[in-house]
Design goal:
The complex is a heterodimer of chains A (310) and B (333).
Chain A (H helix, E strand, L loop, with lengths): L1 H28 L13 H10 L6 H13 L14 H36 L4 H15 L2 H15 L11 H31 L2 H8 L4 H38 L5 H10 L3 H29 L1 H10 L1
Helix pairs in contact in A: 1-3, 1-11, 4-5, 4-7, 4-9, 4-10, 4-11, 5-7, 6-7, 6-9, 7-9, 8-9, 9-10, 9-11, 10-11, 11-12
Chain B lengths: L2 E14 L2 E14 L3 E5 L6 H9 L7 E10 L2 E2 L5 H7 L4 E4 L3 H4 L6 H12 L4 H14 L5 H4 L9 H13 L5 E5 L7 H18 L2 E6 L2 H7 L2 E6 L2 E7 H6 L4 H8 L38 H5 L4 E3 L5 E3 L7 H10 L1
Parallel strand pairs in B: 3-8, 3-9, 6-7, 7-8
Antiparallel strand pairs in B: 1-2, 1-4, 4-5, 9-10, 10-12, 11-12
Helix pairs in contact in B: 4-5, 4-7, 5-7
Classes of the chains: A mainly alpha (310), B alpha/beta (333).
Bound molecules: adenosine-5'-diphosphate, iron/sulfur cluster (SF4) and magnesium ion.
Adenosine-5'-diphosphate binds next to strand 1, strand 2 and helix 1 of chain B.
Chain lengths: 310, 333
């Protein structure tokens, strides 16, 4: 197991390095510089600025400087807001984004699994059709449309919830809903189909033959097995929620990482782009790793397969 | 002898898109305390449906017990509520399934799966339950039970898993054990060991056993009595001796002829043809289309049971003195 974890850590570092390199290549090959949009037409000023941020150096030197900044976890100041370091921005944005993300995942997982189970237990009944109807809508409506709909219906026309910003739990409702519907729908459909399959398994019949209560059969025997595939897609869902949060944070004017990320790209604020990308990637890679570990813990067959494979 | 189970005129149907499957069409049999009854028949004749019906584990929908009685110690299980049945399952009657590779939950330890039935039905502490589980593992012949309890199903061979399934079935000391093709999925050598285990547990616990199989070799080894099933009906029943040495129904004779035996030289003769479609089973004897002795009446009217001894009865027109008479009246009409 330890060997497996070490191997995974190594792969994670390599993946991160590839992402960093690609980001760097993309960053320098996209037209535009951090100073163009500022109206600094003075060429000397621009050159001085470029020099100050090492943008006049050859690409390989810039690349090495970036790598150094990542290894030392010091991305330097933002070009756009020179009085702020990238770490400041991350430190302020991340807790908010994390809050949005975590609440969204909790909502999506709990409601998705519940819907999926209900649908499976009432297979071909009203609840099943209703739940799957909701799921199809949830999957097919993009989250920014969902956000707009929610704002229009529940914040503008009904004024039940605030339109935007991030201050109280009430402020969280609409962005979380907008962001959670898609993953919830995916989880619901997956839970339903695996649950239906698991319920026909012999071990479920055997559990019934033992005289266990339906509740025990579902929770102890069916659900655990039915959730395995759900866990495997959690990594992808987390990634989806993270990218979705870029858009949602913009729409709801939430001062999270997504906002800085999008702004930094618009402004070609290279240190911030690099900082946020590395942060997002590292976070996602770690999440995928945790999902794999969780899967191994929940499914005893996998743990042993890995042990034997060592 | 005390009857522990008496099934009377059991009918089970399945409603499907293609129509209604009449899977079990009036099954009668009984089981005496402490004996082993084998139910034999080709695949699809309704053996599993019959055993699931006794446990009331027919999936509904599509399945339904449409008529009949299942008297377990005088109590009609066909009429019991689901809640009452939960106190019967695993406690009074236990079941063993065909495939030990799929009957155990892959994500729970053997210990958990052994103990959970006990914890469900008895007020018992964890350590007592564990002690009982160890006893059971020992009884069914699993070495190092304490260590093995902590392992998962995939760490056991097929034969070992079937032993565990048997241990699970017996842990609450049921009076009746229904084993649905318990050796079909196993290697021949393992089959013999599992059959010996059945004999052993019957000696030790006195449990009555219904053994479902399509394999007459299995029957010859451990059955006391045999019921032969065909197209949703029991067409002949008798002691092992009666069925093996004086089979009366042409289908039973056909089955016996298709089993390899040491004393009969020559080729095996499998029965030609296939069983009837259970969507619209024939009104008369379902074996008519395959029967070398079929008469005109066979196809029209189902034969009454003829009792050849206290224990031996058969549903076949060849037994009936009135067959010719009845045929004559039908022809003149
Ligand atoms: N869930 C079901 N839905 C529809 N038909 C079924 C179902 N279960 C069993 N049957 C039908 O009942 C008949 C008897 O099946 P079964 O008892 O499993 O046979 P076997 O004697 O091989 O155990 C078969 O024709 C089968 O198609
Ligand atoms: S009743 Fe007729 S068809 Fe059926 S087994 Fe007897 S002889 Fe053959
Ligand atoms: Mg069967």
């Amino acid at each position: 197991m330890l060997k497996y974890i070490l191997k995974r850590l190594l792969i994670m570092v390599v993946t991160l390095w590839i992402i960093i390199t690609l980001t760097f290549v993309l960053m320098v090959s996209v037209p535009g510089s951090p100073f163009n949009s500022e109206g600094n037409s003075n060429e000397i000023v621009q050159q001085n600025l470029a020099k100050h941020y090492n943008l006049d150096k050859p690409y390989h030197v810039q690349y090495l400087l970036y790598l150094k900044s990542i290894v030392t976890l010091d991305f330097g100041p933002s070009i756009k807001q020179p009085n702020q370091t990238v770490n400041d921005l991350l430190g302020r944005g991340f807790p908010i984004s994390a809050e949005l993300g975590i609440v969204t995942i909790i909502v999506a997982v709990i409601s998705g699994i519940t819907l999926g189970i209900l649908a499976a237990l009432r297979h071909n009944g009203v609840i099943d059709y209703l739940a799957m109807g909701i799921a199809v809508l949830g999957i097919s409506i993009p989250n920014f449309i969902m956000a707009t709909l929610l704002i229009d219906q529940l914040a503008v026309q009904r004024e039940w919830f605030p339109v935007a910003t991030w201050k109280s739990p009430m402020h969280m409702v609409l962005p979380v809903l907008a962001l959670a519907t898609g993953p919830m729908a995916i989880i619901a459909r997956l839970t339903r189909s695996t649950m239906l399959e698991v319920l026909t398994q012999d071990y479920i019949k055997m559990a019934r033959a033992k005289g266990l209560t339906p509740w025990k059969i579902i929770v102890k025997h069916a659900l655990r097995n039915a959730l395995m595939p759900v866990i495997t897609i959690m990594g992808t869902l987390v990634a989806g929620i993270m990218t979705g949060s870029f858009v949602i944070e913009q729409i709801f004017a939430i001062p999270g990482m997504g906002k800085y990320f999008v702004e930094s790209i618009n402004h070609r604020d290279f240190p911030v782009i690099m900082g946020t990308t590395v942060f997002y990637s590292a976070f996602l890679i770690v999440m995928l790793f945790l999902v794999d570990i969780a899967y191994g813990i929940l499914d005893p067959r996998i743990k042993v397969a890995k042990k034997e494979g060592e | 002898m005390e009857k522990i189970l008496e099934v009377k005129d059991l009918h089970v149907t399945f409603t499907t898109y293609g129509g209604t499957v009449q899977a079990v069409r009036g099954v009668d049999f009984h089981l005496n305390k402490g004996e082993t009854l084998a139910i034999v028949g080709e695949s699809g004749c309704g053996k599993s449906v019959t055993s699931n019906a006794i446990m009331r584990l027919i999936p509904s929908p599509p399945g339904k017990i449409t008529a009949g009685k299942i008297l377990f110690k005088g109590k009609d299980l066909a009429k019991e509520s689901e809640k009452k049945m939960r106190q019967v399952r695993g406690v009074d009657i236990s079941m063993i399934f065909q495939d030990p590779m799929t009957a155990l939950n892959p994500t729970l330890t053997i210990g958990t799966q052994l103990i959970e039935g006990l914890k469900q039905h008895r007020k018992i502490t964890d350590s007592e339950a564990k002690k009982r589980a160890l006893e059971m593992m020992d009884l069914v012949g699993i070495p190092n039970p304490a260590e093995r309890m902590k392992q998962y199903p995939h760490q056991f061979s097929g034969g070992m898993r079937q032993r565990i399934v048997i241990a699970i079935a017996l842990i609450c000391e049921p009076e009746l054990l229904i084993a649905d093709e318990p050796t079909t999925a196993l290697d021949v050598t393992i089959q013999a060991q599992i059959l010996e285990l059945f004999e052993k547990i019957q000696d030790v616990t006195g449990v009555s056993i219904i053994l479902i199989t399509h394999d007459l070799g299995v029957v010859a080894k451990i059955a006391d009595r045999i019921a032969v099933m065909y197209a949703g009906k029991i067409i002949e029943t008798g002691t092992k001796r009666e069925i093996f040495y004086e089979p009366q129904h042409p289908y039973t004779k056909g089955l016996l002829n298709s089993v390899p035996r040491l004393d009969t030289k020559g080729r095996l003769k499998p029965i030609d043809g296939t069983p009837p479609d259970l969507f619209s089973p024939p009104e008369g004897c379902p074996f008519t289309a395959r029967c070398p002795f079929a008469m005109e009446v066979c196809n029209k009217v189902y034969p009454k049971s003829s009792n050849l001894s206290d224990s031996h009865s058969v549903d076949c027109w060849l037994q009936d003195e009135r067959a010719k008479q009845l045929l004559a009246t039908m022809v003149t009409n």
